[in-house]
Amino acid sequence: MGVKYHDYYETLGVTKESSDKEIKSAYRKMARKYHPDVNKESESDNKFKEITEAYEVLKDPEKRARYDQLGHNWQQGQDFSDINFGGFDFRGGGQSSSNYSDFFDVMFGGAGGNPFGGASRGNPFEQMYGQQARQPRQMPIDGTDREIDLGITVKEAYQGVKKSIKIRTTKTVDGRKMPHTHSLEIKIPPRATEGMKIKVPGKGVSGKNGGKNGNLFLKIKINSDQSYRAEGKDLLSHITLTPWDALLGSNLTLDFFGEPLEVNIPKKSRGGEQILLQGKGLKNRTGEGDLILELRVQMPEHLSREEMDLLRQLKDLHEKHNK
When comparing pLDDT for 100 and 62, which is higher? Predict the structure, then answer.
């Protein structure tokens, strides 16, 4: 049976004029797509072997030159039955010693057995060109990214904070992967918003065969408390007023995360109304948020006899003026 010609350029989707960089890029793209660890389709394994074989030849200047020289007159689909290799059997008992095709074995020394005798396990092409066949290398596979939630308080979101967190990873001990807890210190910038992601390079899923590690992304989750809650880039809170502060108006000082904040209460304010303080919220790409204060009017729990008398007088005056 003849040895079928393989067009390595066509296999990788490149041309003879393609640069080494273009060939490498094409291989990495196709290898990610067809690697058996990623692609579970039945033909992916064969496809991966084909593109790896093509890359093994085209990435090596000497092999590529040899392939271009010997292969340029062979049409795709034609076999090499009429090529005389001196009557030797290069198949080493009928089975290849490599994962490559017969075409690769014949041209680049992948088959076992030595038709010229001696202890060497090379083949005629190895003897002719003085180059040992290289074993296929495993393709580097980059690790994937990971994303986890990172809960912080509203105060931490507004002021910024350094957080120490622990993540579970693996490390290799004596060739085996073992669970490992890793501590990280994360800096959260001031006025961070819900859903903001902080990138920690190289702390995602580990790569294989020398591939790069993935990245870790920490997704900010802001936990509300009794005083504040976050809605997008706005902060919401409330102020509790006495009836006379609501009616007469007042200037109050609010403790805003340790910062004194002056708030003007208009006259005749009502419960449920809101006061907006611009630029005192969180911040994202669209700009700064606001601090929104909801007014709540609350009756005092205890009133003196004198205070009750004044309220009766107020009631009488109100009824008199509204007859």
Answer: 62
CA distance 35 to 19: 24
Structure tokens at 225: 């408390």
pLDDT score at 77: 42
User: What one-letter code names the amino acid at 320?
Assistant: K
State the chain's maximal CA–CA distance in angstroms: 127
pLDDT digits over 250-261, tens only?
Answer: 999 999 999 999
Query: d(Cα 86, Cα 190) in Å, to the nearest integer?
Result: 78
Name beta bridge partners: 217: 147, 199
Is the pLDDT assigned to residue 289 strictly greater than 60? yes
To the nearest 10°, the Cα dihedral for 95, 96, 100, 106? -120
Q: What is the pLDDT of residue 196?
A: 95
77 in any annotated domain: yes
Total number of domains in the chain: 3
The pTM is what?
0.53
Euclidean distance between CA atoms 239 and 248, whole angstroms: 16
Q: Quote the domain boundaries for residue 193.
A: 146-223
